[in-house]
Please model this.
Amino acid sequence: MSISRWEGGSHRPPANFLIKLGLLADHDECWFFWGQAGLTWADVVRVMSKGKRRVPGLPTIQTINK
Model:
């Protein structure tokens, strides 16, 4: 019933579910789900900088300490 309601537009999936769908999607589609969840590129970069797993579709970020 939940999926039917999402498809019909009467309900929206919760943000945590949209984030998980984005993780399952390929790199061309992940941002659609993450955007629906309210995430921005800066949010994902902040999480990645804390050593979390690599996120598909996001360029590799390299930091250099001087």
The radius of gyration is 14 Å. The chain has one domain: 2-48. The CA atoms of residues 26 and 48 lie 18 Å apart. The mean pLDDT is 76.
